[in-house]
Each structure stands twice: as structure tokens, then as C-alpha cells.
Amino acid sequence: MTARITALDTFDIRFPTSRELDGSDAMNPDPDYSAAYVVVRTDAADGLEGHGFTFTIGRGNEVQVAAINALREHVLGREVAALCADPGTLNRDLIGDSQLRWLGPEKGVMHMAIGAVVNAVWDLAAKRAGKPLWAFLADAEPDWLVSQVDFRYLTDALTPAEAEELLRAGRRGRTEREALLRERGYPAYTTSPGWLGYSDEKLSRLARQALADGFTQIKLKVGADLEDDIRRCRVARQVIGPDIRMAVDANQRWSVAEAIEWTKALAEFDPYWIEEPTSPDDVLGHAAVRRAVAPVKVATGEHVQNRIVFKQLLQAGAIDVLQLDSARVGGVNENLAILLLAAKFGVPVCPHAGGVGLCELVQHLSMFDYLALSATTENRVIEYVDHLHEHFVTPVALARGHYLAPTAPGFSAQMHPRSLDTYRYPDGVFWAADALTEGR
Amino acid sequence: MTARITALDTFDIRFPTSRELDGSDAMNPDPDYSAAYVVVRTDAADGLEGHGFTFTIGRGNEVQVAAINALREHVLGREVAALCADPGTLNRDLIGDSQLRWLGPEKGVMHMAIGAVVNAVWDLAAKRAGKPLWAFLADAEPDWLVSQVDFRYLTDALTPAEAEELLRAGRRGRTEREALLRERGYPAYTTSPGWLGYSDEKLSRLARQALADGFTQIKLKVGADLEDDIRRCRVARQVIGPDIRMAVDANQRWSVAEAIEWTKALAEFDPYWIEEPTSPDDVLGHAAVRRAVAPVKVATGEHVQNRIVFKQLLQAGAIDVLQLDSARVGGVNENLAILLLAAKFGVPVCPHAGGVGLCELVQHLSMFDYLALSATTENRVIEYVDHLHEHFVTPVALARGHYLAPTAPGFSAQMHPRSLDTYRYPDGVFWAADALTEGR
């Protein structure tokens, strides 16, 4: 009998991170790191499941779950083998749903829902192939990878033929690079010292720890108060010395003029990049900031809604560093498009991570990029934040400031059943107990 | 006692329009016009309610309702008088919710939900003032109107001082214009003849009817098949003659190169504008299309997600015609920003309408624009589509191709209780009967 998809189950998972000020920045003072989590089940004899999720920061996670539920009918009943052989067809069907498309198109809640479902299918496909996703992708033929990309609205910047040529060129030397990857891993930088809610003492301590852990770049949140930022940058630079890179991140706090002024005021501390200086929608604004603050680099991407905005950021020369996110755009397929665009324009990709499971996911994309496309880790680092990894069955492994290459089959997306039971909102063990405590 | 907001009730309302091919275009072959509808109730003695909604085209309307529900806690308990005296505070609180913001920011499902709630508050405020919204806005002082605009991310294109100056200049001659408006109304154009699903015979008949009804512009959907489009444009042009404007609308179907090629292939029929030639996110793409297809004008806006993208469309010289939508962005407050940006750049606003109730809402914004900002109707028309008006308590009134100025207090957003009861999904009278017929 032909195995088919039999269920798409969703879970509203929330962690009470706001109580520790973990993850606090200039725009997000009190996040409760959350996941709209999805499990795709089949009736295949192998018993394998596909797991995926979208990251949110608390309120509204139920809206995200509702959006994933709205996609269920597109997934149920599909043949497992055909689906895993060509996730791009599902990706196009989800993006192309002519009624759901009105709610975007290709942005916000509906698009993140598509990403969660598509990523769950890639998890299943890689598990069925018995490979970690990075290897599953890097082993694929260039023409198949190109077939997985939706080139609609991209061809003025990148054609399928150009994409295939980039992939053919990119795979040269792959064997040597894979040996290096398996030995050393992929470079990381850490944001853990730099949350706005932390004291100077905690910032110093965590910055020292970052050096001890082998990181060569840290990141500080800025943008709430300039005097505070100057003091915190000075503290951090004193701890790390002149040779460690220090990025700063404004989380969209500023207008174009404010971004330029504030970045220049921090220039004496030699920031490596200014991240999210203004609205993620403002391509022309980022271009203006970049012209004004060089040699400080401009980075953005964690809130960039889709490949069309990334295309323009590259066309306009608006960014030095492209920070794709594994779970905001339409899943692996759209991230393939974004990696290809970055390669075409020669802009390094330094992915956004942190939150819930974003490190687990995005490492696979960077490792694929290294093996099969960019062919280098120069000026490339994956963000690392030491939060909530314990909830994952195959959590990331860091050593000497590098992400070690995952060996387990799949996309590293699977959470422990106990974590789902405990943090399911509002009826999981933690939240039910919390409601009792609050007298609700 | 101080009157407060006591309830925010939501309704999932869907009309089975797909069964008649009303509203069919190149990207939306089978829309079921729908509304995520909201009623704001108070304990004030006047018994007035605020009504608002977001328009969708069917599936996913329940996600939109969930998003509105996620905003409820921001609204309940607010003082009615304070809220109606300053809807901008609520607008900023909703956009600024630090957790919900992650689901956008300011785009897609969450942003449309904010628009529905904010518009309901404006409906209530205008009702309490005893004025139709257009008059409520046009009677307001420039500095108060400026206080209602969120200038975050706008100041590189428009400052509060510039906005106030535009409003002060715009109100000159307002008395004479208001007399004209009350006498003649505001010019409209009609899309009713041009849906893709209609036969040539129906197209001809409806185009003739448009002339008889006094319209001086019609619009045809294009983009599915070039030979069909050439034939349909020829049929329409033969009916309407050379002096009536004929716009064409591709509903985002094309890449940049396709948009240029296709528009040029239709140029012999003298299209007035090409609408949505490509992705609404592609500012640079629209600019490239505009450079290539002049003198055909480029129009977009019904899917433009917020003021930041409109800002860039204007900065980049990407559009000749700005088509704001009453219910996609963050409500009246953000549309004030968009009208001010259009005035600053001297680009005419020809709003998107149709769907469910979009004509009812947007007429107020254009009439305000005429009285208090642009001061002209030259090259300005509001879209008109003759669908579903019968469900509204104070439906639009058209005469001689003009929208007549509404006289009832409020935003014209209120639907008949019987319509809500009949088309509530899935348990309203129509849908319950339909499910029985389908044997579900």
C-alpha cells in the first residue's frame, strides 16, 4: 500500500522566559519564547514523523497555530514518497492557495505557518533518507535543488540557469570541506552576553565566558538609551580586547537618521556590524544607513518577510551581511532561494538564531551553504544563544566556538514529548500550575 | 460613571461568491468574499457601537478572526471618551505590543487585525460626534490629525511639521469643495465589467452599462492568457470608444520582465494604468516596470502592507497612482500617513475597493483627502464594484458615476444583523443549509 500523510498535529508551546529577562532587547522587553509546533504523521511502516515549528515570543502564538491548522487540508492524504521526493510542489501549493494568499501574500502569520509545515516535511524527507538535512541537501543534484526554488518575482535578479551554475561551481572541493566541517564544525558567535536587561556585571562575566568558550565574535543589544549603550560597549570592549568582533543590534528601533547618528556615536568601540538599524521593510532606508555608517557593516534579515525583500536588499546594495532565519520565510525552499541570491551578489550569510530551536534548524542551512554553494566560512558565523536547547531531542553541540555538524537524520527540529506536555499553553503542566498560583 | 469599552465581539462572515465567478482574476480564480468582522461595545448611555472588519477571500478568515481576538485585552476597559478623542494611542499600543509585533511586524494577518479594530474605534468616534467619518476627519484640526499618525520609519520622507503644513494648506477652499462634494459626490470607476471569469458578451454588456451609468473609467482583469487579454481589451475598447479610460489589472501575476512585455503588448488599446504588475513587495521592480512602460501609468497598493512600503514606492518613483486600501493597513491612522505621503510626493490616490464593504469604508478617506489635503479630484477616482452592498445598513450610493457623500454618522461599516446571522461561518443559516445539501 502507498504510504500517505495521515495527520498534521499542532501544539501551542510557550516558555516563561520573560521572568529572567533572557532575550530582552530594545523592541522586545519581555519575550516568552514560544513555538507553534507541528508534527506530520504518516502510515508508513518506518514510523517516522516530520517535526517543524515557527518561533514567536508569546502572545499571538495561538494565531500562528490557527494559521498552521488552515494548511492541514493541503497536506493530509499526500503520498509520502512523492512529497519527500519533491517538497517544492507542496511549497508552491501552500504559497499559491488563492484564498489564503490574500492574508499575505507571502508574509507574516500565514507565511510563517507555511514555513513550519514545509520544514516539517523536509525533516521527514531527511529522516527517510537517513541523513542530517545539511547532508541531504549537499548530496542533492544542482538541477533538483533548483527545482525546489520558486523563482516567481526573482528572475530580474537570478534565473534558474544562473542558480544551477552557482550550485555546480559551489560543489567543487566539497569532499575536503566536508572533512573540515566534520572535524571543526561551523563558526558561531554568541549573543548571550548582550541582552539589554542584564547588568554590567553579568555582561562582563558572560563576555569573559564567551572568550573562554572560543567565540571570536559577540553581540550586544543597543537602542534603548545611548548613554547606556556607550557604557555597555565600553565594558564589553574592555573585556574582549580589540581583536574579537563586537556586533551591535538595534532590533528596528530607529528611523534612518537616528540609526546613522547612533551608530556613529558607537563607532569608537569599533562595532563590526549594526543589525536591524531600522524597519526590516525599509530597503531604501537600509541603503541610506549603509552609505552613511561605513566601514561599520549593515546587517539584517531575521524579520525580512520573504525572498522578494531580500532580493531588493541585495539589488540596492543595502546590506553587508544577510541574516536569514530558518522559520520566518516559507521554509527550506525559500531559504534555498535566499542562499542563492546571496551567492549571486557575493554577500555573506550569517543566520539569525536563538529563540526556540532556531539554532537547531539554521545550522543545517549554513553547513549546506558551505559544502555546496558559498564554499567558504570566511566572514560567516551563525548566531548562538544558549537558551532552551535542553528541550530538543538532538540539541546543537558547540565546541571551541563552532557548531558541530549534526549526525542524526533530519532537521534537528524534534522536541521531547515531556517538554510539549509541560509547556503546552494553556493546559500543560507548567501553565496549569502557574494559573493556580496566580489564582486564575 | 465613566463609560468604558465592555466587549469586542468577532464574527467570521463568508459569502459564497465563488459560485458566480464574481471577483475572479489572474491570481484569485474563486474568491469567497469574506469579512473578519468586529463590534466594539460600551456601557455608555448612548448605546452606540463601533463596527469594523477586515476583508479576506475565504479560507483563512478564521485565522483573521483569531488575530482580532488576540487584540481584545488591549481594548476592553478603555474609557470611551478618551479612546474616541485619541484613537492614535490605541493604534500605537496595538502596533507596539512587543510580543504580537513578532508576528509581523506591521504586515499580514496581525496588521489587518489591527486595522479592523482601529477602524471600529473610528466608527464609534464618528458616531459619537454625530458625523460621517469624512466630515469628522475634515473638521479636525491639522495638529490633531498629525498627532494621529505614527511617524516611526517615515521621517526621512515626511516630518510631522511638513505633514501639518500640508494639512494647513490643504484645507483652503474647503467650504466651496464641501458644497461641490455634497452636490456631485466623488468620481468613481467600475471594475464590474472586467472579471476574468466573464464571457465577452457579459463584458460588452457590462461595459455598455458602465457608460450608461456615467462612469468615465472602467477596469479589466488581465494576466492569465495574453491572447484572451488582447481580445478582451479590443472588445472593451470598441464598446467604450477612445475617450473613456480603460485600466488593466494583473493582480501580481508577472515577473518584472513579463510585466513589461505584456503591458507593451496591450499598449495599442491605450490602457490608462497597469495595476499590480508584479509582487506588491517589489518596490524596485515596480520602478523598473514604470520606467519601461510609460506613458502607461503604474498603479499599486491594495496589497501594500504598510506605510513603510508606500514610502519607498514614492521615494523610488515606482508608481503614478497610489491605491490605498481601507482595511489592509493599520486602520484610519495609517491611512492618514499614506494620504500625507501621497500629498508630499504629489501622487494621486485612487483607492482600491470592492470585496465586502471596502467601497463603504474607503469613500470616507477620499472625501477627507479632497476636502482637507489634496484639494482636487483631478485624475482621482475611487474603485467601484457592485457586490454585496445590500448587507450594509448604510450602503454606498452612486449617481452619474460618483460616490455620493454619506450622511449617516460613522464609517458606514455596519452590516445588517440578518446578514451576520445568515453568512456566519460555519454555523450561519446559509452555511448550515449548505453543509446539509453537501451531505457533510
Structural commentary:
Two copies of one chain form a homodimer. Helices cover 43% and strands 14% of the residues of chain A. The first copy, chain A, is of the alpha/beta class. Chain A has a domain at 174-415: TIM Barrel. In chain A, the strands form two sheets. In chain A, strands 4, 5, 6, 7, 8, 9, 10, 11 and 12 form a nine-stranded mixed beta sheet that branches. In chain A, strands 1-2-3 form a three-stranded antiparallel beta sheet. In chain A, α10 (200-212) packs parallel to α11. Chains A and B meet through α1, α5, α13 and α14 of A and α1, α5, α13 and α14 of B. Chains A, B: This is L-fuconate dehydratase. Chains A, B: It comes from Streptomyces physcomitrii. Chains A, B: Keywords: Lyase, Magnesium, Metal-binding. Chains A, B: Its cofactor is Mg(2+).
How would you summarize this macromolecular structure in one to three sentences?
With 440 residues, the first copy, chain A, is an alpha/beta fold.
